Amino acid sequence: MTLLRKIFFAILILNTGSVLYAQQLELLFQGGMGSYAMTDLKSFNAQIQRTLPFETVETENFPMTVQPGLQFAWQITPKYKLGLKYAYNSTGSRLTTSDYSGSYYFDNVVTGHTIGIVNSFLLYNWNIVQLNMETNFGVVSSIMKINENLQVYDTIVTTAVKYTALGFFVEPRLEASFQWKHLKTGIYAGYFINPWGKLKNEYGEKTEIKVSWSGIRFGIEIGIGSRSKDHSVRE
Questions:
Q1: Domains in the chain, ordered, with CATH?
Q2: Taking all residues of the chain, what is their mean pLDDT, rounded to a whole number?
Q3: Neighbour tally for 154: CB within 10 Å
Q4: Model pTM greater than 0.85?
Q5: What is the distance of C-alpha 154 from the center of its chain?
């Protein structure tokens, strides 16, 4: 987080004059959907299924989920916007089976906190409608919790373990927005690239399994924003 703060404030210092000229701020609440590669974790589940002495059914396999988020940005120049963003990610999988003698399930729940820098470049501006290209980057802090439960008649055996991972991401995406006075709404779509993030166990030991949040992203946003006096100029 320290490195991201240093980069953010360095850019602010270098562009102080432009910031004072633009005087535009925005705070947006975002709600979207995301798909997740999770290639290693899917392979891990398949390996678990092969090693179990009984057959299981995969009822969930890291599906697409809702992503809430928040974005704060500052207009540095008429065509460049800099900001900070946060998004919460959550997905998981389940292997399960049951019969007259008992039941079994293997749950794998992964959550991620995405914190990054927004780099937004104006492509088109017509009065109150804008089209921007964003190249965002930052870090993803992930937590994976595995819960395993086996019940045979009156005997229950449970296991719970926790892993963590830290990785970087790059997210190119397009944003189309509409602003009326101080109300701003918009839609966005892009692709989240997160190739790194090896899991560590509770003792800090690294594994070879990676958490990958890579996948498509799309959603809507709504919030408040100030506008410069020349916002009606066509680009």
A1: 2-225 (2.40.160.20)
A2: 88
A3: 6
A4: no
A5: 42
